[in-house]
Design a protein that fits this description.
The protein is an all-alpha fold and 128 residues long. It contains 6 helices and no strands.
């Protein structure tokens, strides 16, 4: 049983690192090359607020989600937020699937984290 718990913890950690990386990377890269990352926003979002405010506000949101998921604490909410953001990215950019195809497995990783978090809540003892 102890090995099972260790395997579950390791699986959860690897999923959390993978999803967090996918959210931290663009947030950090946008600081150094903002013009490249602005092109990922759909036209209807641009111009509502200054482009750099939009970009870096979204970057802060991505960083918060990533850090929260990495923490492993009550990750159901950030996992759902990550799922929704990734689903929106996939839907909005579906014509560019050759570029965003990696977002599909990351979305599924976020869903797996949400399911794990939900299942842990329903366990009689919480050993995590």
């Amino acid at each position: 049983m102890h090995n099972n718990i260790s395997a579950e913890k390791m699986t959860s950690l690897l999923l959390r690192i993978g999803v967090a990386f996918a959210f931290l990377y663009p947030a950090i890269k946008a600081i150094f090359d903002p013009l490249s990352w602005l092109s990922y926003f759909p036209d209807f979002m641009l111009g509502i607020v200054p482009d750099m405010v939009l970009l870096h506000s979204f970057g802060v949101l991505e960083a918060v989600i990533a850090i929260w998921i990495l923490s492993g604490k009550k990750i159901f909410i950030p996992s759902i937020l990550a799922t929704l953001i990734l689903a929106a990215i996939i839907i909005i950019h579906s014509s560019g699937m050759d570029v965003i195809f990696r977002d599909v497995p990351i979305l599924l990783m976020a869903v797996a984290l949400a399911i794990q978090a939900k299942e842990r809540k329903n366990l009689p003892t919480n050993n995590y």
